[in-house]
Amino acid sequence: MMPKFTRGMIMAAGLGVRMRPLTDDRPKPLIEVGGRTLLDHAIDRFKAVGVKMIVVNVHYKADMIVAHLKKRTDVEIRIQDERQELLNTGGALKKALPHFAGEPFLTYNSDSIWLEGMGANLDRLTQRWNDAEMDCLMLLAPTFSAIGYDDRGDFTMDANGRLARREPQRVAPFAWPGVQIIHPRLIEKGKGDVFSTNQLWDVAIEAGRLYGLRLEGKWMHIGTPQARAEAEEFLRTLSTVA
């Protein structure tokens, strides 16, 4: 029987430095693309796959995010207040563990959107999860077709989906678009209260328990004003063709 992923976490505490000046007066999760905020894109993706409860961490311009989320009465939202100290991605997950009752859950960085290809990507991700062999399962986007991404990739993936880091000075075919299923048993291995999820991924790679699933469709990384403009133009082109 496939596990039901009814709980998730959206990472919304970043400072949005690369998105300035758009983030001078609002947090990055409230930037709009395609007529919706990035935060609402993420919530709607979670809802579509059956998530009923979402933890959202906040720091920069937290009051604006909290006020926006009060309008979302269609899903349970729990605020994780990090205004006193940024915990980084791994630390935020560790602090949120009591909300997930020891079960694996979905996480979503709020600066990613995509157009679906063959099938819904989050459905495919939840169906691929194998608790016996995985501690973390990432959605991975091909770098060659991405909008707003200009780096050298993050991971290579073997025929079984097992991941390895990009070697220094090399190019890797896949980038992480900020979506994963992660098990609390991996998060509990994080050292300290403030740390990056990268620390956890290295632990999972060493154990052979970090896996990936190729994103089918068009990934848009909304990390800078230029990337947002490119995504808006791409979406306008699609609506014109349609």
What is the structure about, briefly put?
The protein is of the alpha/beta class and about 240 residues long. About 30% of the residues lie in helices and about 25% in strands. Helix 3 packs across helix 6 (about 195-205).
Description:
By secondary structure, the chain is an alpha/beta fold. It has one domain (7-241): Spore Coat Polysaccharide Biosynthesis Protein SpsA, Chain A, CATH 3.90.550. The protein is 28% helix and 25% strand. The protein has helices spanning 38-48, 62-69, 88-96, 121-128, 184-187, 197-206, 225-241, and strands at 7-11, 32-33, 36-37, 53-58, 76-81, 105-109, 112-116, 136-142, 155-157, 163-165, 174-175, 179-182, 210-214, 217-221. Strands 1, 4, 5, 6, 8, 11, 12 and 13 form an eight-stranded mixed β-sheet that branches. Helix 3 packs across helix 6 (197-206). The longest helix has 17 residues, at 225-241. The termini are far apart. The mean pLDDT is 92.
